[in-house]
Design a protein that fits this description.
The complex is a heterodimer of chains A (about 300) and B (about 260).
Chain A lengths: L4 H5 L6 H41 L2 E4 L2 E7 L3 H7 L2 H32 L6 H8 L1 H4 L2 H11 L6 H8 L14 H26 L3 H9 L4 H30 L2 H6 L11 H10 L4 H30 L1
Helix pairs in contact in A: 3-14, 4-9, 4-11, 9-11, 11-14, 13-14
Chain B lengths: L1 H13 L1 H9 L4 H4 L13 H9 L2 H32 L5 H11 L4 H15 L5 H25 L3 H9 L4 H12 L1 H17 L2 H6 L7 H6 L9 H21 L1 H13 L1
Helix pairs in contact in B: 2-14, 4-14, 5-8, 5-11, 6-8, 8-11, 9-10, 11-14, 11-15
The chains are: A mainly alpha (about 300), B mainly alpha (about 260).
Amino acid sequence: MTISAETVSFDRTEPAALARARRVGSERRLATLLLLPSVGFLLLMTIFPTIYSLWMSTQQYNLSRPDLAHFVGLRNYGQLLSDDIFWKAVRITLTFSVSVLVLQFLIGFFIANLFDRERRGMNLLRTLFIIPVFASPVALGLTWRYMYQPGYGLINYLLESVGLPRVNWLASTEWALPAVIVADVWQWTPFVALILLAGMQSISPEITEAAELDGLTRFQYLWRIVLPLLTPIIVVVGLIRLIDALKTFDLIYIITRGGPGTATYTLPLHAYATGFASFLMGPSAAIAWVVVIIVNVCATIFLWLLSREQA
Amino acid sequence: MIAGALTAGLVLLWLFPIYWIFLTSFKTPLLINEKTPVFWFTPTLENYRHLFREFRFAHVLQNSLIITVTTTLVVIVLALLAAYALGRMDVPGGKNIALWMLSLRFMPPIAIVLPFFIAWQRTGLIDTYPGLILIYIAFNLPFAIWLLRGFLVEVPRDLDEAATLDGLRHIAILRRIILPVIAPGVAVTAIFTFMFTWNEYLMALVLTSRNASTVPVTVSKFIQAYSILWGDVGAAATIELLPVLVVVFLLQRHIMRGITLGAVK
């Protein structure tokens, strides 16, 4: 914060520049004091687990026999490279993340466009629409699991009533992943849609009116004007959603536990099962670090874009 | 008109799964296993009764509330101080600190759950309130600071300067002048923290067992090897979703701002 000349010259007992320096100095001390609890706590809570899990990924460490732990270098990572389940998990993680991202943006853009009109009742609808975003993934996951039930599930009932065959969604290696993708798309599309909507509504009325005068159809307006203007928002939200999707654990774990077999086994689930079901802490930490690396690549791009925009 | 009706229809259809689990919580097992979906029936509270009797749900609910409320209070106080410094004071490297905090949001929980599990086991923090609360504060603090900083930056500087002239110190300015102005921002930040903590699953799953188990962990245990107690699931899910509904309606306008601010700025 810069102190304006008027503020400082009020104090007539010392030269303005000295008073100003003094003020800035004491303000910095206070700012440091205010930041210290948060920054200190966060450093403590992030540096320790980061170093510890990195160290753990170089250990052979079985949770049931911690006394036998020893250093194995990069062997845990090396073994991942020749592990089929790991590579399959990488593929599933990427398929899941990219699918939900694309679907959330396509559906989200369509819905944002529907919302983008001044009409009574729109506020209420928007409020209702946000509910899934704030809802518990465990509760929602169970809800979808109930609807996917082969015998009495609602989805099969609907399929059958329009003459389509029943599917045993969560027991089918072919359909389990799409089923999980649908649940995630359902939960997060409102988030994407409402942010795109906020972007659409920040487009100045002159631009919209000019487009109307030029006789652009709604589609042309969206394609030629809205889309280019929203590109920065789309990139930022896209990266946030991509990172969140790469980390997804709860929804998938609740709906399928990674199954059937390994059909929905993503990297976070793989890391969890390796650590807390097989008690192989070293390999589990190594898998988790692969997630960290993938996420960090995305996050670096994100922060770079953000700081460039703010500069 | 058509677009309005289409939008309304779409939103209601979108929320149908939540309505469906809500209905299920009032059904008898016979109705739950019915092949044809039943919409009209005499509701029963048996599932709720069973839930509280068999799964110590009152205890679990209390755990979740204590952990969530404590986390939210601590986060708001710490975040307000830090965000005030970052948003309205001259801090060397302030922008880098803000970006560093934002980057913490991207840390995958799966990578840090293991170290905490081992550390908490050794320090006796496993399966305790403080064990979870400490982690949840760390999880929420960066985003809370980032959000509040966004709200604080938007308050005109003239306000501070006028207050400085009146001889108010920084903390007094924050408390008496700024806080009333950004009250909606504080509310939104509190909501985000509350909801995240209330819903969190992975950490609670690994770090609690009997004493400090939270609602999501308990509910997930209803999935058993060969059967799922759908009535109990419905009742628990309804209770778990209740705070969301209340909060979303109380603060509808402000939530929209929080979401766009948190994501876009």
